[in-house]
Amino acid sequence: MTGFDLQSILDAYGGPPMAGDAAHLNPRFLDLLRLTGFDRRFVGGEGAVLFDERGDRYIDAIGGYACLSVGRRHPVVHDALEQALRIAPPTLVQFEVPPLAVALADRLKRFVNRPEDRVFFVNSGTEAVEAAMKIARAATGRAGFAHWSNAFHGLTFGALSLNGATWLRRGFEPLVPGCHEVPFGDLDALRRTLADESIAAFFFEPIQGKGVIEHAAGVLRDVAEICRATGTLLVADEVQTGLGRTGSALASDQDGVQPDLVCLSKALSAGMVPVGAVLGRAGIFDRVFDSIERSVVHSSTFRENPLAMTAGLAVLQVLDDERLVERSATLGGRLADGLRALAAREPGIRAVRGRGLMIGVELDPRAMAFDLPGFGSRTPTLVAQAVCLRLLAEHRVLVQSTAKSSAVVKIVPPLVLEDADADRIVEVFAATLADLRRGRGAGLRGLLDMLHRAPDVVLRESLR
């Protein structure tokens, strides 16, 4: 019998991404990679850095969309997963209480200081939101949901129904009925929405991922009070902000809020094995799973598999042992202070927002001499993407543009980012903005270089 040879598969399929490769998956995604400059092959990574096939080193300030809190190839995580393959109990027995799931639930509750909660494990952040929607409906007997404008809670059907981006919903509607969008931060509108007591739960991100938008001081405490007064469950979507990203175990703690349900994922996975969780008050869970018959009314095939539970346990240990929550606060402060100092002398930066290592840099297209006739509301998107492209191509730094019609560049690196690399991010931002600001012609050439990377039809669709 011939043995399995992963290296030979990588050798056969691991070259630069080509149209033939994408034809097996999603050809239009390759067009997007070409448009954004990511049509290159990364072959290695460690900590907060990546290496391409030529050996060039990149600072990864995307961090797997904030999944890679402990970085790539962390030895503790790798060793833990290897141990799981050797000695973990049988997987997917299904009719059992897996010891690793018990261990992760216990340690996770202690890590986020919610010791009396119940935990329901899932496979992703969007699945955590879906589970929270079902739990909220069953626990309250109400059908409706509410969320802020500009919200992002995932892309499966239920989670998409709580999404503030019309372009992501287009083509999939009608979605789940009874989902109400409330203008961001508008407490009077929230009171009106919840007044008839038909809303099961209000979902919020402590910091909105699209644009890195923070609530005004005290708003979330008022939201919690409005929810309590109307019997509405308060659900914190901490899929991106949780487990140290903002400098605390839960970002909602920083706002003085104790949600009824908390959705987690991303960091818990170490970027290795999909895993997520819903934590909630015992009384809420017990109103859903309230009998032997109803003990199985919600489930998920792979949700408590040994590799996922082991990954979560290893991540929590690394976060504790290396004090990465505290590091996120201090290093994030250093990075944000550097960017704010740059903003004080750089007219191209309008604002620097965020907490810990979740930072948004809002650019000012007009100050950068970008007022492109005919592009209208799309100009901010183009400017942000031009900056991202220049940072990648010229300086080997990966960042992301966060949303359509937004000039925000988002920085969410692994929490193990080196101090020198944090300083480097500030330096290359300064160099990039100065370069783009040298003249309208030079800036336009950078934009046109980006725009010509994909067919016209892709460009039109990407800028809708």
Report on the biggest sheet: 7 strands, mixed
CA radius of gyration:
23 Å
DSSP strand content: 15-25%
| CATH domain topology of the largest domain | Aspartate Aminotransferase, domain 2
**Oligomerization category of the chains in this entry:** single chain
Layout of secondary structure:
Blueprint lengths: L5 H8 L5 H4 L4 H10 L5 E5 L2 E4 L4 E4 L2 H4 L8 H13 L11 H13 L6 E5 L2 H16 L3 E5 L8 H4 L5 H4 L9 E4 L4 H8 L4 E6 L2 E2 L4 E2 L4 H12 L2 E5 L13 H4 L6 E4 L11 E5 L1 H7 L17 H16 L2 H22 L3 E7 L2 E6 L15 H17 L1 E2 L1 E2 L6 E4 L7 H19 L2 H12 L4 H7 L2
Helix pairs in contact: 5-14, 6-14, 7-13, 10-11, 15-17, 16-17, 16-18
Structure description:
It is a single chain. The chain has 464 residues and is an alpha/beta fold. It has two domains: 194 residues, Aspartate Aminotransferase, domain 1 (Alpha-Beta Complex), CATH 3.90.1150.10; 247 residues, Aspartate Aminotransferase, domain 2. The strands form four sheets. It has a seven-stranded mixed β-sheet, with helices on both faces. A hairpin with a 2-residue loop joins strand 13 and strand 14. The C terminus is likely disordered.
